[in-house]
Amino acid sequence: MTKPIQPVYLPELGAYRYTIGDYALAAVHELGAGWGGDSGHLGGSGLIWGPDVPTLRLALDHEDDLVIYRKDDPFPDVHLVTLPDGAPSDLGTLRKVGEVLALLIVNRFVN
Description:
Elements: H1 20-31, E1 36-39, E2 46-50, E3 53-60, E4 66-70, E5 79-80, H2 91-108
Antiparallel strand pairs: 1-2, 2-3, 3-4, 4-5
Helix pairs in contact: 1-2
């Protein structure tokens, strides 16, 4: 009988603890009632939607910068996302990422 594989977080290998999809869901949590979100394939992107706001995509651009834009816009206005503490390494810094994203969404996309 084989033993089940246990996932292991190995920061010395350069692994990130949270995915971009997790960032999107942290933003949804901060935005509150009426907002929803989902993780993209393997957590490499995230979707966020809410009242009177088209679906937004959170992803890396071609230069590996974190950006957010309207998912279905053929020529989207892309907004760079700056993470004050870099990639989150614990729930506290993930919550800060959610707060940063929620503020950006409200300021740039909510009418």
